[in-house]
Amino acid sequence: MNKSIFKYIKIRWSLLAITLTFIVLQSCVPTKEIREENKSLPKNFDNVTVGDTLNSAHIKWKEFFNDTHLVALIDTALVNNQELNIMLQQVDIAQNEIKARKGEYLPFVGIQAGAEVEKVGRYTSQGANDANTEIRPGKEFPDPLPNYTVGAYASWELDVWNKLHNSKKAAAMEYLSTVEGKNFMVTNLIAEIADSYFELEALDNKLAILKQNLELQNNGLKIIRLQKEAAKATELGVQRLEAEVFKNNSELYNVQQEIVETENKINFLIGRSPQHIDRDSDDFIEKNVGSLNVGIPSQLLVNRPDIRRAEFELQAAKLDTKVARANFYPSFTLRAGVGLEAFSLKFITETPASLLYGIAGDMVAPLINRNAIKAEYYNANDRQLQAIFDYEKTILNAHIEVLNGMSKIDNLNKSYQQKEHQVTALTQSIELTNQLFSAARADYMEVLLTQRDALESKLQLVETKKDQLNARINLYKSLGGGWN
């Protein structure tokens, strides 16, 4: 039997061994079934015309807010807000991770240069051999022996099981997830600034109402003091009215403090030092709340950044599970190198004498004690299941937020109408009570209670108007508007 037949038999046995190894490994790979995500939603929202797909989420935020001061504040925040800028860096980091994962399935090529000096004992096998060897007639090996090397090397892991490609795709999904996370942060930032801005305008109106009420109470206090001098009123009436004046003065300072804190909150959100916030609060009560078109529930899957973020995270988790499963299979690596090597620099360019090269291929597969790989695979499955639950939870939460927002706007509109009637009635009763009190036909308690009720109703009307505006903003955000 000649040598070629031996080589043929050796190759056949090697291929058979690889095949058997693969079959054994394949049979030992664990599997775990993961259910598909449920993203079903009703066809329509309650009390919405069937098939009405007109959606206010498609309105640009600059068109949604028609207040020039508010638009300027949001514009500044989108540039200077620190949390948003931190998030933008996170997006950049995720994008760089894609490049890193992509580079893993491409060949790694490097260059290498080295120099060394070696001294071996003469009475060793290598030393004795060097001593009896002439590199040229009459010239022995140098002692000590230097060595100079220059060359290039490459290594390449063959992505047979798509492990590296799936890893790169998972990084891409994570990147898209961070982009949607940024969009969701933009939506929340815009809504928070708008909420704070309308709260600031509401506080301005509360302050104005308190000042008007104090003016009325001070006039009433003057009258009751005159009546007391004329023996038409008692000291008790004077003390009760004075106490009410002190109470409203105290509330005045509380509102002023809330204005300062709200202004500073807005300044913090837009990333600037504390300063006055420009606004026009005079027409706050007359602001038109308007109606919003909610479209159909399935549009939430496209319009809401938090749902899309959860979806991309789920896709990344699925790919990570495939990567973890591929770790059970053999990995194949090719290595190669070429260069020049000599003990003297003057010989290093003499080819082919100084030429060195090599090529090798490796197959490495886990065989015994694969507990760590199994644990990572099971963890990847668990993370995938977590991502499914998170995705379904985000969809459910979005649907509920829209329904709550629609109901809140409807009920606040009805409440506001009732409070308007209440304010009108109590304002007229103040004028009537003051006239009766001036004519000594009503006592101080009637004046006091009427003014107190009127003040509370006006403050509640302002608060309800603010709630209406905030509810409209929150519904716009719940529909997925604001980030575009």
UniProtKB/TrEMBL annotation:
Residues 409-472 form a coiled coil. Keywords: Coiled coil, Lipoprotein, Membrane, Palmitate, Transmembrane, Transmembrane beta strand. One of its GO terms (cellular component) is plasma membrane. It is a lipid-anchor. It is found in: Cell membrane. The keyword Magnesium does not apply. Its main location: membrane. It comes from the Bacteria. Pfam families: OEP. GO terms for molecular function: efflux transmembrane transporter activity. Belongs to the outer membrane factor (OMF) (TC 1.B.17) family. This is TolC family protein. It comes from Flavobacterium agrisoli. The lineage of its organism: Bacteria, Pseudomonadati, Bacteroidota, Flavobacteriia, Flavobacteriales.
